[in-house]
Amino acid sequence: MKNSTKQLVTSGIFVAIGLILPMVFHGMGGAGPVFLPMHIPVIMAGFFLSAPYALLVGIVTPILSALLTGMPPMFPVLPYMLVELAIYGVVTSLLSRKYKLNVYVSLIGAMICGRIASGMMVWILATFFMVGLPSPFLFIKGAVVTGIPGILIQLVFIPLVVMGVNKHTAVHRMDKTI
């Protein structure tokens, strides 16, 4: 019970950060697609939460953001962004927490899986809903090229935070045992 409460509260914190951070970046002249601010808290949630909670953060964050701020637009952006973020959260959690892979492998693995999943969703939207989107390969290429600054931020910032929190937590645990 105690762990599930902690996971739920931590999930709420990551969702809140996922709502606030994009508003800050979009307030700087629409920098969201370049700096990918909603990705950061969702991916970080995967490092600190079990897979179901990380998945929940990846689903709830873009939905709440779309409802409360209009970002991302409900259609066609929300469906592929929701899939991408959900995959980021769950894959990060599985790779880092279940399979105990290092932070960089977990991060890059999640980033690749999330982009592939969003490309698949773009294909579904274009094929079955006749949405005028580029092919999945062009979409992924465009998202990666446009998001290079955000990807670089993720590759530097997220590992620093995760390793710093893990180091602090380990030291705190040692202090309790002494």
Automatic annotation (TrEMBL):
Database matches in Gene3D superfamilies: 1.10.1760.20
Q: Which Pfam families match?
A: ECF_trnsprt
According to UniProt, the name of this protein is ECF transporter S component
Q: Which InterPro entries match?
A: ECF_trnsprt_substrate-spec
Q: What is the lineage of its organism?
A: Bacteria, Bacillati, Bacillota, Clostridia, Lachnospirales
Q: Keywords, A to Z?
A: Membrane, Transmembrane, Transmembrane helix
Q: Which domain of life is it from?
A: Bacteria
> Example GO molecular function term?
transmembrane transporter activity
Q: Please give the start and end residues of each transmembrane region.
A: 12-36, 43-65, 77-96, 103-126, 138-165
